[in-house]
Amino acid sequence: MRGGTTAGAVGAAMALLALAVPARADGAQPDLTRFYTQRLAWGGCTVRNAPKGMECAELTVPIDYARPENGTIALAVARVRAAESGEGPTGTGTGAAPARATAPRGSLVLDFGGPGESGLNGLGDFMAVAARLAPAYDLVGFDPRGVGRSAPVRCGAKAEQLIESPSDSGPADDAEGRAQLVEELRAVAEGCRGTTGKLLPYVGTINASRDLDVLRRALGDRKLNYFGISYGTRLGAVYAAQFPKRTGRMVLDAVDSLTADAAQSAFAQTTALQKGLDTFLSDCAARGARCPLGASTAKAAGTLKATVARLDRRSARTASGADFTSADLRTAITDALYSEQLWPDLARGIAALHDKGDPAVLDEITRRFAGQDARGDRAGDDNSREALLAVNCADDPVRAKDPAAELAALEKKFAQASPLFGPAQVGAAISCTGWPAGTDYIRSIGRTGAPAALLIGTRGDPATPYRWAAETARRLGKGVVLTYEGGGHGGYAASQCVRDVADAFLLDGVLPAAGTSCARETPPEQ
């Protein structure tokens, strides 16, 4: 799977990249040789909780692939090399010859989603569930352009405060409230432009995909073997469309839409969240007296509704003295729905808040997901909210002519779909207000010519609805959808069955038969 940096190979890479780089006005082909011939200088890492053996490097890429002379940025890259200890893929540590060959198959490049999630910070968590892959692949994570340690998008203190704490938990259902939200969104866009500067127009997925190809070459791989989760599936699909002949084995888990605009995506996620919440409440009630919210679905739902109403009247207090509002409760529920392992904690947390006014369990869930410390502060290199906004807007060509009017038209629809999530989610429908229209390339992807990929769709996914997996598979032209019948965001980490199927593909190239599914694996009660 590996190849040397020969003149012929670089020339072929240049010819392929020409298909994916916009033509210059003068018709000249940009010279990208220096990017495709660079070598990564691996060294130590300054990443919290880095896994043993993790090495870090920087990859140089152009800001604008059509005009590489206009500046470069450095992308942060990390890897854990394939195990060479003789330890088998099941992690027995006996030193005996493993049942499966452990010769490296090259690199497996990972993207953990967002957009805005750090590939360096997520590498350790992935390794915890990828024991069979570690002996065979160098596992590689990276911070995409605009994210974390890779020329991060910044929007200025005022705009970043608006992103983190908008003026209302959701758009007010009156003209004044809508107008205020629209002005805040425009202020955020202006802040991002002024602070990030000339990189901002180039942070979208199309350029991140080009970066992936430069990374592939710098790693010494003839083809890109790739595992993308959530947004990472969008990035993988764009790579397959731009570089089909360079695409190797590709697994896409929690599959994102290639066609939904901001409003369509927000509504789909609203309905998915409500479906996840309904499943959580019915699961809890099925435990009878052991469900702290009530022994029937109606009682459990009533407990939650009463808790929200109480917080709307008066917020609770965290251990640090901060307010804990109904918006904070909604955030904690959203976070916990991403992993069924957190559902027992979520039930106990809602019960403690309802019975005792104590939000401690829920506050811990929220802070853990947000990467915050006990004071609620994020790590200094965490720009996930800013990057999410910038990348999504770069990838979306649709803009409302009258954002406030669009809000007014959507509010009832969202609230009916989910009284809890809808009023807060509807604002995302106009989140790109003030940003220039993004590319329409991604929604035009169809029949890429790349090898068949494995796409994993989870029936109860609260963030990327199950139907998106089949839709994206059709657009790629080749692909097999593996269904996980459980809940949570992504199937690989949740299910041993899913891991077995995905690992068989990545290790041996064996795709499952069409229609293959894995039963729900309910985690034990905690």
Report on this model:
The chain has 526 residues and is an alpha/beta fold. The longest helix is centred in the middle third of the chain and has 24 residues, at 262-285. It is 41% helix and 12% strand.
Q: Number of helix segments?
A: 17
Identify the strand order in the major beta sheet: 1-2-4-3-5-6-9-10-11
Mean pLDDT: 89
Which H/E pattern describes the elements? HHEEEHEHHHEHEHHEEHHHHHHEHEHE
Radius of gyration from the CA trace?
Answer: 23 Å
Number of strands: 11
Question: First CA to last CA: what distance?
Answer: 44 Å
- The stretches of 5 or more residues where confidence is low (pLDDT under 50) are 1-19, 84-103
Percent of residues in β-strands = 5-15%
Summarize the amount of helix as a percent range.
40-55%
Structural class comes to alpha/beta
Largest sheet: 9 strands, mixed
The backbone outline, from C-alpha atoms, is globular
